[in-house]
Amino acid sequence: MKREELNTLLADAAGRGNGIFVLNLACDDPIALLNRALATEKAAALTDAAKAAAEQMKAEKCIVMLPEGFDSFGIEGAETVIVPRSLVLREAPAALHMLATGELRACPDERSYPTEGLDGRPTVIADAVTLLHQEGKKALMLVTADTRKLLEVDVGTAVSDILQSQGIPHAEKPLLLGGLTGRMVPASTPLTVEDTPDFDLLRPYGAAECMADTAASLLANAREESCQKCVLCREGTWQMAAIFADVTEGKATRDTLPMIDDIGPLIQAGAFCTFGKGMARLAVSILSACKAELDMHIIRKQCPTGVCAAFNRKTYAIDPKKCAANGDCVDECPEDAITFKKNFISMIDKAMCTGCGKCASVCEEGAIVVYDGKMRVPDKATRVGRFK
What we know:
This protein is of the alpha/beta class. It has helices at about 5-15, 35-40, 45-55, 90-100, 130, 160-165, 210-225, 230-250, 260-270, 275-290, 290-300, 330, 360; strands at about 20-25, 60-65, 80-85, 125, 135-145, 150-155, 175, 185, 200-205, 315-320, 340, 345-350, 370.
């Protein structure tokens, strides 16, 4: 919400009387946690701003929505309500529904806010970002693999200048803006800070971080963040998380990622709330911003950073010139990944093999070796001694 919009709501509520002011600190993105940082590092200023807003609307009641696990944030005379932290609560109808029923859900059809809010009274809800907003300034969180810092910068500042000033060198990896409802942008994209939620977070990635693993983690978080009440968001977050997980596990094919391009726009168009629409936009942006690294996982079956364990495991094969077809390896394999038939060369199913090496340890002929991609192996049942 823009500060100008908040002032309009406060003035309207003041004219109606019997109002309720709500400070919402539970609507954070789990990566940025910008409201938490503001409430922690600028507690006095936020308390004053909340009191001023309540006075401006002549509120007769003040409520502070605190996320579970957050240290107390007290405003004299205010009621504190502990609720789950969720991006869904960024929308006022969802926050009102949470306060009234204790249930987390998107509420797209509720049009009474703010004139008939909580208990049928005029209710105005504002977060720390809005209350502490200064014209021409943007509060944002700069997060890396090992640092987290609250910054306040001028709108229009080049993102590259911010990173340089914080000792973060230019990287070839993409940059995450805004968190789970933001977007991933290529490192080469020229960016300047805007006064929008997309710039609540700057998350540059280092050379040692895998973008496929990052994508899988982001969409897994999005799946947990969903209130599960909207079919498109519930099923969409599950599907997208599964797709990126397949990439990290070496299960994805060339046809896997285009599915996100197919379902992403549908979710953006039909999801109940801004969270659902935003997480779909994030997933689609990852495809273009991280294409090279995703393709390495899918096409070349390599994780260039070595993060994805599925690409680091050993792959075994049976040397057809040494195999005696005695079946010892079959009995030892815990995954039933070895095809055995008497007098025929045994074969290892690479998709099922976990690389444990137990089969190699019992093969007296030394026929089971780490596969280097060069040794020819049969692709169908072949009698011992007849493979050429």
